[in-house]
Every structure is written in structure tokens, then in C-alpha cells.
């Protein structure tokens, strides 16, 4: 087998494993089959499987746990890489990246929102308020993320949506830390004005409102 052929085969195995992970065959947090099992499933050699798994581990999609096996840590390479970068990043830098994405998303959403987008935003905003009232941090973090995802979706830019999805897990983690388990009243920030500006079709105001709550590192 030539080097080129071997490299191509490894890429094919990487692609197949990535597709199976993305399809949910092995959910995030679950353990993938053992190396011998993968050899049988994929019909390739042990070294090819080993190289493919190593590549996906380096990309942050998989993680080997000594004495236990290899686990799925993300559903795609971009998410894995970004999550790893965000996890090690300075808080201020993380907020700057959020601001860059979310401010532009809000601005575009004000220009491009549809009636369906507005309905989704209203529902997400209401759900976020209800989630805060529960006092459950995990519930609130999910509801907060849903609202921001709805804003990004209303921007109707597939590349922006994909990039935001890749950092969403890291953003949720930062929000959970900022809110804290006590969910004190002083840490809550109303997002109604962001939605109102998008509804009014005012891109400058939407961008300003989206950026306002990201000025302070302690706020989510």
C-alpha cells in the first residue's frame, strides 16, 4: 500500500466515524467501540483505526480515558477545537468573541427577521423569563441559549449560525459560571429590549442592546 493510499483510507475512516458521531450513533459522553470492534465494523486494519481515532482525539471530538476507553466529547471537529480553546481562554477574550458574534447577529436579525423568527423570539424570551423564575441554573442556561440561538437564526446567515453553534457549549458554561448557583436578582439581565429592537427593524439599536450585557465579565 502506498503512503497516499494509506492516507486516503485513514481520511475515509475519519469521515465515517465523524458521520456516525454526528448522527448520534455514539452520543456525546458515550464510549465508542473498542479498537478491535472498530476494525471489524469498518473492515480496515488496526493501524488505520488507531490513526483515525488519534486524529479525532487531537481534534477534540474524542478523548481517551486511561483504563476505561475512548469517549465522544463533541459532535464535530470545529466544536471540539473551539470548546477546547474557549475552556482555556481568558474570560475577557471569551466575552469579546461572544460580542463579535452576537452583536452582528442581532444587527442582521433586525434587517432580515421574518414573522416566524419573531414568533420564535417571543417564545424564547418568555421561556427564558420563566426559567429564571425556577431558580434552577441549568434550566435557565438552556433557555438563555435558546434565545440567543433564535437571534442568530433570525440573522439568516448559515455560516454565522454554524460558527455560533460551535461555541455554544462553551458559552453555556460561561453563562452558568456568571449566573452562579444562587441566581441572585442582581445578576439577571432582561433581554426584552434586544427582541424589541429586532421587531422594530432597528439594526443599530439591536446591536447596541446585544452588546450592552456583554460589557461586564460577571454578566451572562
TrEMBL record:
Limits of the HTH gntR-type domain: 7-75
UniProt keyword DNA-binding present: yes
UniProt cross-references to InterPro entries, sorted A to Z: GntR_C, TF_FadR/GntR_C, Tscrpt_reg_HTH_GntR, WH-like_DNA-bd_sf, WH_DNA-bd_sf
CDD domains named in the record: WHTH_GntR
UniProt xrefs under Pfam families: FCD (PF07729), GntR (PF00392)
Keywords: DNA-binding, Transcription, Transcription regulation
Name by which UniProt lists this protein: GntR family transcriptional regulator
Species, as recorded: Asanoa siamensis
